[in-house]
Design brief:
about 0% strand, 8 helices, mainly alpha, about 200 residues
Length: about 200
Amino acid sequence: MNDVINLSLLSSVFVTLFVIMDPPGTVPVFISLTAGQSRTVRKKAAWQAVLVAFGVIVVFAIFGQQILSQLHISLPALQCAGGLLLLLIALQLLTDTAEDPVQTKNVNIAFVPLGTPLLAGPGAIVATMVFVQRADGALPDVVAISAGIVLIHVVMWLTLRFSGLIMRLLGENGVLLVTRIAGLLLSAIAVQLVADAVTDFIKAG
């Protein structure tokens, strides 16, 4: 099976993007931004936001290496910067200091702030670019990364689509608990990224 798809990498991509994008944590934000809207409008906003996020992630997954080459940025540098960025996001999740995105007048909320930066934010973009850099074009790894990106966006769409039901089932305390767990996992991933980057710097130096 690993000759076709790297299952270990698939799980890593999915879990990492899950804790960064935090589907349960987006539920109260989505509900607040679509308050007063009809069910049809909420459904449309859900799939539009996920589609925008998917497009942004895919663009950086495909062209991220070219961007790094043009800017003369190495993979360890990207890993270290990404790790520090993810650690900042993790601390915000753990301490509840993250600011809720503000709706901009005359702007479709499915694009801004839902699609980006709420779903496809800096953390998700950097994490995806790091995974693609590590894959180095190997087919099983590329398939795994692609499948992981698709799966997390399917989960995100289902979460937003049934946000009202999820909010009733989990409640505010349940959403808070999931957010705290996601923050803890994300902080561990961030520290590991920085540690790997330092190790690569030492080997290269």
